[in-house]
């Protein structure tokens, strides 16, 4: 049956230098409670709704040998192929909280032509985090 083949989007895995620090940072900066941090600090998850945000070390035997090494952020003039995006009812307050809790300010929230308010920060590993409002219906 074709409907049995439709997958649920389960995880986004963010490769970071220090899983415990990243889990704590994302919890404070973006307002997500920690769901899980294993004792080895090699896997962490946030309570982020239907799709889980998970963290694992940049360098690890399990995936490096199978799929290759993770490309680390080398410069602020270039960014990773991943952008983490969060939607908030109050983007200005969320942006302020993120910066007050260690996120690097990139661009404060501004209204966009497509009906969304959007601001950008970088996390503690240099990954771009987009903070936006829900898109307004026209």
Automatic annotation (TrEMBL):
Entry-linked InterPro entries: Glyas_Bleomycin-R_OHBP_Dase, Glyas_Fos-R_dOase_dom, GlyoxalaseI/FosfomycinResist, VOC_core
SUPFAM superfamilies: Glyoxalase/Bleomycin resistance protein/Dihydroxybiphenyl dioxygenase
Pfam families xref list: Glyoxalase (PF00903)
Annotated ranges, domain VOC: 8-134
Protein name: VOC domain-containing protein
Organism: Lactuca sativa (Garden lettuce)
